[in-house]
Structure formats: structure tokens, C-alpha cells
Amino acid sequence: MKRIFLLLVELIYFCLFQNLVFAQADEEKPDPESPVQDNRRTVKLSPQLRSLGREKRVPTIPIETIQHFLTHPQLLTTDEINNSGYIIENSDGSLLSTVGDQIYVSGLDNQDPIGNPYIIVRPGQIYHGPQTDKTEEILAQAAVYLGEATLKNQGDPATLMITSARQEIRKGDLLLPLQERGFVEDFHPHSPQQLTDAYIIAVTDGTSLIGKYQVVVINKGFNDSIERGHLLAVIKSGPKITITRQEDYEDNVTLPQQKIGSLLVFRVFDTVSYALVMTSSLPISLFDEVTIP
After folding, report:
1. Domains of the chain with bracketed CATH
2. Contact call for residues 256 and 265 (beta carbons, < 8 A)
3. What confidence score (pLDDT) does residue 1 get?
4. Among 83-87, 106-110, 133-137, 250-254, where is mean pLDDT lowest?
5. Would you say 127 and 142 are in contact if contact means Cβ atoms under 8 Å apart?
């Protein structure tokens, strides 16, 4: 009996000791709602506005659209028209020639080496000044690219073989020495400081209404300080309308101009330049004005 009593006393003391340990542990546990007290520096974060510089967007250029204009001659000078070699006949006497045919050419330089490459062109569209120019000055003449040929035998006439043909080739077509051309990598879009009396004078595919990614010709070139990479705006003149204020009084009013598109100049000659239509909010027409954006 005495032994049972001692066991009960020990059990009571053990329970009291356990309660005391848990109570102390609870007192030492940090309160989640109370601030943490330690030696670390507290940094208070709050939302703020930041100013970011606006990146200048470089227009994306579809190279496949202008590749032909970069790698082949597009204009003929008066000297080239008058003094270049020209086809007088082909080997089988037919009217037209194509790849693999031999052609006879008069007027080539007899010093050209065997195997020398040539391009075959035909005089094309004549580029005049804008309609506002009553003198109808001839600014340039287009060169229609037909194909290429290589020299087989020197002489006058010389013998050449056609190695490529985009169109059928005929008598009278011109031959020019082949020059390596390509797209120059230092192409940086920018705008001219000034530009006056500039107009779209032609479109290369012959259409009358012009849209995005079509190639146009403007009546300004190196002589007017135009550079490759110039960004230009196309302006449509406002229409004239008649306003009736009273029954017996009418007034003619011209509406304001509006910007309808943008151009990127990619090839420049002395008096004209080729430009790609980058944007078009309305159809662009021949002789629409071109100005600084």
C-alpha cells in the first residue's frame, strides 16, 4: 500500500513538471502578429513610378520585295542607250532568244575577256517631272532587266550565250557589263532636314493605285540631298468642295491635306529615287506629294 502511495506521488510530480516545461516554451514562442525584433535593418518597400526611355522602332524591310531593285540596274543613262552593245541576231535566226541560245552582239569592247558576264536590258518607262512641271522634263529612263549572257568569242559582232532569261530577248536589246550589287548593311532610317516639291512620279508595276510594299519612284535624288534610308511622308491634297451659304451665293473651299502613308528610300540616283511604301491608310496615287514626316 505504501509502495502504491509513493508511485502516485511521483506521477503527480512528473505531471506538474511537464506542465511547467510546456508553459515556458509557450512563453518563448514569438507572437506572429508582433514585429520581429532583431539586429537586421528593416527596409520598407512601396510601389514607385519609373521612367523608361522610348526605343526608336526600325521599320521592318521585306528584302524579297526590293531585292531585284538592289541587284540589277534600274536606270539607263543617255550614254548607255547610245553606246552600249546591242543584239543584232541569234544563231538560229528566230525572232526571240532564251536560255542556251547564242546571240550576236555589235558594239562591245573587244578587250573584254572570254567568259565576261553581261546583263541584257531594254529601255523602259521614261520618268518625267510631276504634272505641275509644264516643261515635262525627262528625269531618267528605266532599264527593264531581261537576263544575262557570257562572252564566247570576241569580235564585232561578238558571240555570247544567254545564261539566264527573265523575259524573252529580242533584237535591239542592250548589253551592259555585269556589276556586283547588293544590300548595304549600314542601312539607318532617318529623315531629311528639308524637302520641297517632291512627288511620286511612277510606280514600278504600272498600277494607278498604290499600297503597302509597292515600289514607287520620286522626283528627287542625289542632286536634292536625298539619301538611302530616308523616311518620308505621303500627303494627299484635300478635295475642293462648293459651299452654299445662301440661295444665291456659293463658295469654293479646299479641304486640308492629310497624311496617308510613309515611304522608305532604298536606292538613290542623281535625279530620282526608289522608295518602298511602308504604310498606307488610304490608296496612294501618282503625283501625291512627298514631304518630311
Report:
1. 63-177 (no CATH), 198-291 (2.40.10.410)
2. no
3. 54
4. 133-137
5. yes
- Indicate the Cα dihedral angle 241, 242, 245, 251, nearest 10°: 100
Can you give the three-state secondary structure of the chain, one letter per residue? Answer: CHHHHHHHHHHHHHHHHHHHHHHHHHHHCCCCCCCCCCCCCCCCCCCCCCCCCCCCCCCCCCHHHHHHHHHCCCEECHHHHHHCEEEEEECCCCCEECCCCEEEEECCCCCCCCCCEEEEEEEEEEEECCCCCCCCCEEEEEEEEEEEEEEEECCCCEEEEEEEECCCEECCCEEEECCCCCCCCCCCCECCCCCCCEEEEEECCCCCEECCCCEEEECCCHHHCCCCCEEEEEEECCCEEEEEEECCEEEEEECCCEEEEEEEEEEECCCCEEEEEEEECCCEECCCEEECC
Q: Which three cell numbers stand for residue 188?
A: 539607318
Whole-number Å distance between alpha carbons of 139 and 77: 10
User: Rounded to 5 degrees, what angle do the CA atoms 87, 90, 96 make?
Assistant: 85
Tell me the per-residue pLDDT of 145-177, one tens digit each, with 9 for 90 and over. Answer: 999 999 999 999 999 999 999 999 999 999 998
Which residue type is seen at 26? D
Closest C-alpha among 118, 123, 128 to residue 149: 118
| Separation of CA 213 from chain center | 8
User: Radius of gyration of the chain from Cα atoms?
Assistant: 40
pLDDT of residue 21: 46
How far apart are the C-alpha atoms of 72 and 185, rounded to whole Å? 17
Q: Is there a contact between 105 and 177 (Cβ–Cβ < 8 Å)?
A: no
Q: What's the pLDDT tens digit per position in 254-276?
A: 888 899 999 999 999 999 999 99
